[in-house]
Amino acid sequence: MNPFEHYKTLLASACGIASRYLPDASQRIEQLVEQIDERKVHVMLFGAYNAGKSTLINALLGEERAVVGDIPTTDAVHRYDWDGHILLDTPGINAPIAHEEVSTEQLKRANLILFVLRQEDQDAQNIIERIFTLIAQRRPLFVVLNYEDSDPAAIERIQSSFSLTLLNHARKNAIDERLVQQLPVILMNIRTASRGRLEGKAKLLEHSGFEAFIVRFKQWLQHFDSEQQLLKQTFGIIERALLAPVANCIDGETPHAQQLGAIDAQLEHMARQQQQLKNSARHLVRREILAARPAIEAALDQCTDPASLTRALEVQAQGIAEKLQQWLEGELQSMRKAQINELLSGAGIDPKLYSNIEESELLDKLSGPIFAQLKGINQDHLTSLLVLGRKLKIPMLKGRWLSTLQKWAGRAAPVVQLVFAIAEIFMAARSEEKENERNHSRALQRIQWIEETSAEVESALVQSVCELIDQLFREQRKPYEESRNALQGAASQREKDCSDWHELTRTLQALEFPA
Question: Mean pLDDT of all residues in the chain?
Answer without folding.
Answer: 79
